[in-house]
Amino acid sequence: MADSMAQLSRSRDLDKLLLRPGHLVGPTFEPGPDLRDDLQQYARVLVVGAGGLGCELLKDLALSGFRNLEVIDMDRIEVSNLNRQFLFRLEDVGKPKAEVAAKRVMERVSGVNIVPHFCRIEDKELEFYNDFNIIVLGLDSIEARSYINAVACGFLEYDSDDKPREETIKPMVDGGTEGFKGHARIIVPGVTPCFECTIWLFPPQVKFPLCTLAETPRTAAHCIEYAHLIKWDEAVKRAELFGIPGVTYSLTQGVVKNIIPAIASTNAIISAACALETLKIATGCSKTLSNYLTYNGVEGLHTKVTEFLKDKDCLVCGPGILIELDTSVTLQKFIDLLEEHPKLLLSRASVSHHGKNLYMQAPPVLEEMTRSNLNLRLFDLMDKIPKDIIHVTGTTSKGDHKTSCLRKLRVVFKGIDGVTDMDMAGGA
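and the corresponding structure tokens:
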């Protein structure tokens, strides 16, 4: 009896959105109980990250009618997490965040099923991500966002008029917080700007000149970074030598790991916005955000929505980089060309075609299994298709910093029927 009453209470506000027509609904919205049932039965949502924002997202999505949720996170719970990641307790320290978060939400919200994945996002096959209707990001890393963005955009296909095929679009909802500031945005690959289209929104990480660190330190941060690069146990001694106060453990963590203090209320606000946008995308019960919401609670409360434009030449969400090849090119030669290509500069590349691994750099067992393909013609490995999409994953360098990335390529083979002069005109 209590469970049924709780279910009715939770669905009351949801029914107001899903069972009634309105003036701000999406173009495909059809109100009715079937829509609510479909949301609970068929909608599959992946939450990436089970930290401060991820905990809130799992709770909000479960209470918003979603029943099939999965969460992926590679971290274990630390004592410092407990002040804002409300699903965790002191006895959980050392346990995987994803597993504990899933367990706690399922204990509190009846009927929801949450599958946890305790691993790196790169450890999952691409097809794992393709099984979800919507991907919701609760990450604190630019690199992780870029990777998931590339994965989702990698499923996108364009028709002959370079328009995205609707059935291949994998929507994402991205949230982020920094102290009393935060953002929520929707990314509809091929329609709205993807993460890479607006990478300029994120400021570069602060770097300190080595000469300043070694010879003329002026702040506590300089002393901490010097100790991080040379010897950890000399951080306080370095500060004392130059008469600089303020070298504490929390500041040390903040400088070395680029940690910004997290505020529980900010996570709750941004999560609510992200959960609502996820519900809009899944049901069409309202028009979605267009397309970037910023929140600032430093002085009072300020929110603003900005509509950013898609970069038509984006390497990630565009139709794909066009590469023109001879049919004689082997897979090994193709991988070598990726390192030299001016738009790619990919090292240690792994290659897949329609979900089939042509060559994998890791793990060792897959490398050994696919090694024999290196001496075969790429044209044969692609089933002699004159032009088609393949995906490559590798490492790219920006200065001294290396990051993993995934790129979509349109491979065109010369001299094969079905390849037009127009195809060749854009060859790299």
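(Above: one complete record from the training split.) The first helix runs from residue 2 to 18.
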